[in-house]
Write a structure and sequence with these properties.
about 200 residues, alpha+beta, Wheat Germ Agglutinin (Isolectin 2), domain 1, 4 domains, three-stranded antiparallel β-sheet, 5 helices, about 25% helix, elongated, disulfide bond, protease inhibitor, serine protease inhibitor, Kazal-like domain-containing protein, Kazal_dom_sf
């Protein structure tokens, strides 16, 4: 076995590419960071983006994104075995904590029944199934009301980031960020207000 150190994306140094590939087979989140030994910096990074793209850590904790998991691992020191298990939230099953891979299956076919829904992207969907197909791929889309969207609602639509900075609105709904709150407020003709920052 040839010693040709490779740094894995989990911060561990592997003896060679073959060993790294074995680790990848056990955990698809592990990849090649760079050739050579992993370098441990004396100071851990402290700034991460606010993107909300949850990652389940090997400790059963859900981190808001991969950067935050990496910072946690760095803060635990060089002996840390913390690594990403999968994207998505960690789950609990049967009262005992263990990790399950979250798999979302999007609907593939919908019936032709016409029961229109207006969604937060300003689009009218023929029925709930067609809405679920799009919202499965983009979970920031929500149902605004039953029926077709009107012209005003189409002008409310705008793209939003997936940052998670929750806002509790006067309608009792928690919006993931200010952009999504503004869209909802537009649909409500400006009648909503921010009650607090954080979940309702």
């Amino acid at each position: 076995m040839k010693f040709d150190p490779q740094c894995g994306s989990n911060g561990l140094t592997y003896a060679n590419l073959c060993e790294l590939e074995k680790a990848h087979c056990k955990n698809a989140m592990v990849g090649l960071a760079h050739a050579g030994r992993c370098q441990r910096s004396k100071k851990c990074p402290s700034i991460c983006t606010a993107d909300y793209s949850p990652v389940c850590g090997s400790n059963g904790h859900t981190y808001s994104n991969l950067c935050r998991l990496t910072v946690a691992r760095c803060n635990q020191g060089s002996s840390s075995t913390l690594h990403a298990v999968h994207y998505g939230h960690c789950t609990e099953s049967n009262g005992s904590s263990h990790l399950n891979r979250i798999v979302t299956v999007c609907p593939e076919a919908c019936e032709a029944k016409y029961s229109p829904l207006c969604a937060s992207n300003g689009k009218t969907y023929s029925n709930k199934c067609y809405f679920e197909v799009d919202s499965c791929r983009n979970n920031s889309i929500t149902i605004v009301h039953h029926g077709e969207c009107n012209q005003n609602e189409m002008s409310c639509s705008r793209p939003c980031t997936r940052e998670y900075w929750p806002i509790c609105a006067s309608n009792g709904i928690t919006y993931a960020n200010k952009c999504l709150f503004r869209i909802a407020n537009c649909y409500a003709n400006g009648l909503l207000s921010i009650v607090s920052y954080g979940q309702c």
